[in-house]
Amino acid sequence: MKIGVVTDVGTLDDKNFNQFSYEGAQRRGGSGRHGGSHRHP
Fold it and tell me: For the whole model, what pTM was predicted?
């Protein structure tokens, strides 16, 4: 399973929706057989 997070004008450490969404995806997608990656546009 692959999980994607699309952010708005904020960053991944904005202490708001973007950060909470990214952290949730990391917890789910970064564990066990589900790999994770991150890239900046």
Answer: 0.60
**pLDDT tens digits, residue range 1-41?**
677 788 878 888 888 988 898 888 888 775 555 555 666 66
- Measured between alpha carbons, how far is 23 from 15 in angstroms, rounded to an integer? 11
Contact call for residues 18 and 7 (beta carbons, < 8 A): yes
Q: Please spell the DSSP secondary structure of 1-41, one letter per residue.
A: --------SS-TTSSSHHHHHHHHHHHHHTSTT--------
Q: 5, 20 in Cβ contact below 8 A?
A: no
